[in-house]
DNA sequence: GATGAATGAGAATTCATTCAT
DNA sequence: GATGAATGAATTCTCATTCAT
């Protein structure tokens, strides 16, 4: 691997060249099914239906592919939350929507996301990293409407994410249960200083 | 890499064989200084002061070394939580101690921790990941002394763990800050229904 | 060594790709000159004038190269026997030609043949070993023109093959002698009920 | 592997030291179950229930173990045939006994014998090789009582052996059938110039 | 005499990258 | 523009052999 020029050449300046999408989609699938160890350029080229040579036409090296994937995941994440940026935080339904969004985002391609993010962490410009979570964190306000400190926002988002991730990783059978979702909402609301939502009677 | 037998052979059943410790310590150092890319068996053997052959006497393959490191990290969580077991959960100092113990585990070697956690998540089986939490979860009680439901206990333990892990994985600069520690304690106490610890004035 | 896909990939379906021939020829030479012990992939690649990587493009692992050599040897038997197929079995000259063809196959490289045969026996599956004999066996008739029973045909073909193989495996110095050839022909003709060819005066 | 002193040291000059037997028996088993590839000193020591060090007390190196095994197989083979040395060859029952002896000898440990013999061929003194088959071959006489030439004897023994071996290797279902045995006897008797035994009516 | 932990040269295999077609 | 065969440095892993206890 030599230097890097991010996405190299960019034919007709249209970054949206279909090939790039195909490659990144294949990369996500491959990462998901084979893990980082099985993620090699030959396998990727095959899954993407292009030749290795073509891979190198669009990306300067393998890391760049991972990085692009990571950036793309971040972007998707940020976009999903963009709508709720200035939202009314006291609104329970909205909080629940946030949890659901998280659960959904986390639902598929766990390994792909992890590897992509890890690649980003390992090789990309650190400053770029906050980009994805930033908007979400900045929009969080407590029960009094005061914005959370960056660290508090970090704790909240990662705590919720961590509980969900653990449920996935540990193969918990309650992953899609109502109670699990409720407890996640509780956790978030209590941390933000809202009154504790009442617990439902056990099913 | 073939299958695996975790720690292979275990000479004279004295698992505490110094060599294993030496290797794992060297692994952590190497990971820290050279990153995952520079983490190869020859370099590791050299840094550990043993031959490659010896590496393979104690570990079936390279992944197993990372996994052992990961298990260590995992043990740190479990140990931290275990301290809570007999504890009076209302005791703020104790909760804080638990968090603090964890945060300073692994000697501050963030990169090593990161790689170790990644290895653990990538290769451990789900059942193993949950191991060690059971007793902790069963002993958790809320502010009124009522035991938490299994799902609530799961959410609490994994949420705290998730936030800590994310700080490690994302190489957060506030990992060892007072505020981060405070926020983690807040999260746990609020979820259990205790009064929110006051936030200190920002430094 | 993992599983195997026999000849892997087969670029542009033109199996006749010169490289495979070059590699197998180099393998036979190397086996002949260095024995099975000196038969390693680096040496083979060098002698073949290709890179190790290229070796692995055409063969999934080292064993597969030996196996391919073995299959070649096996094909020589089958081809030799196939010549009998339409043939008038009473024709002494033809029988002799078949034996002779086999005996001189593989360019007289006894050590290479030996290793190849060993590889074949060690790794081929039983069904493959029988392949190619069926038609030969069905066409065998005794001196009266009556077809041989399947078992009798089996005994004849494998007996002749066995004697030839043993001469190869045991590095017999008479492998290419006239007397050996004569005795093989005798064996076959007597079993089929033909008059015994006269023995020549010893040289 | 350095030089070689065959069986090294020989404690109390009694070659029959039980350990040697144990090791050779384990070697035969291991060869049988794992093939030549899986035949390594560590595995052998374990199966034999001794330490590697002990292996090296009795054998100068790995090859010597294989060679000893080969020599032992040869000896057993020779011993089995010793009784029939001067026999009345016209006796059909005796011929049949020879075939049975072969079939029995070949019955078990195919791979072990093959590997052992191969090792002998590859590493031992070529002159030593004929030792096992020699006595048998020398005792063969044709229908007129004249001894067979060495090559004729070789062809006969290896042809019969080859047909049996092929039946084993190709997983033939008639391996233990009467007809198969009959045909082998036919093959041998016809080659020796006896009248062809009548074929039985098919079952 | 026996043990088995340690050694380390050597071998197999992988895979990012290039470049002639 | 695309292809995919070829490259070969780098890495993982094996296993015969030694030797301190």
Describe this structure in words.
The structure is a homotetramer of 203-residue chains. With 203 residues, the first copy, chain A, is mostly helical. Chain A contains nine helices and no strands. Chain A has helices at 18-34, 41-48, 52-58, 62-82, 92-107, 110-123, 126-139, 150-169, 178-192. The longest helix of chain A is centred in the middle third of the chain and has 21 residues, at 62-82. Chains in contact: A-B, C-D. Chains A and B meet through helix 6, helix 8 and helix 9 of A and helix 6, helix 7, helix 9 and helix 10 of B. The structure holds a DNA duplex (21 and 21 nucleotides).
Provide the residue-averaged pLDDT of chain A: 75
- The sequence of SSEs of chain A as H and E is HHHHHHHHH
Main beta sheet strand tally, sense and closure of chain A? none
Distance between the amino and carboxyl termini of chain A: 57 Å
Q: Find the structural class of chain A using helix and strand composition.
A: mainly alpha
Figure out the total of helices of chain A: 9
Quaternary state of the chains: homotetramer
Could you tell me the radius of gyration of chain A in angstroms? 19 Å
Give the total of beta strands of chain A: 0
Any idea what the shape of chain A is? elongated
Helical fraction of chain A equals 55-70%
Percent in strands of chain A: under 5%
Main interface by residue count? C-D, 42 and 43 residues
Give start-end ranges of low-pLDDT stretches of chain A: 1-5, 9-13, 83-88
């Amino acid at each position: 691997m030599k230097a890097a020029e991010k996405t190299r050449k960019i034919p007709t300046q249209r970054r949206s060249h279909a090939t790039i999408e195909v490659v990144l989609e294949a990369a996500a699938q491959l990462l998901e099914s084979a893990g980082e160890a099985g993620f090699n350029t030959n396998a990727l080229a095959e899954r993407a239906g292009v030749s290795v040579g073509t891979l190198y036409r669009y990306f300067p090296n393998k890391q760049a592919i991972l990085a692009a994937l990571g950036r793309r995941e971040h972007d998707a994440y940020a976009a999903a939350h963009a709508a709720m940026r200035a939202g009314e935080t006291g609104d329970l339904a909205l909080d629940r929507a946030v949890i659901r969004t998280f659960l959904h985002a986390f639902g598929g391609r766990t390994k792909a996301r992890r590897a992509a993010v890890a690649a980003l962490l390992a090789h990309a410009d650190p400053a770029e990293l906050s980009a994805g979570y930033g908007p979400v964190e900045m929009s969080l306000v407590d029960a009094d409407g005061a914005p959370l400190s960056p660290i508090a926002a970090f704790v909240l988002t990662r705590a919720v994410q961590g509980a969900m991730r653990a449920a996935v990783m540990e193969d918990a059978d309650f992953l899609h249960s109502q109670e699990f979702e409720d407890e996640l909402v509780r956790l978030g609301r209590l941390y933000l200083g809202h009154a504790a939502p009442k617990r439902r009677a056990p099913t």
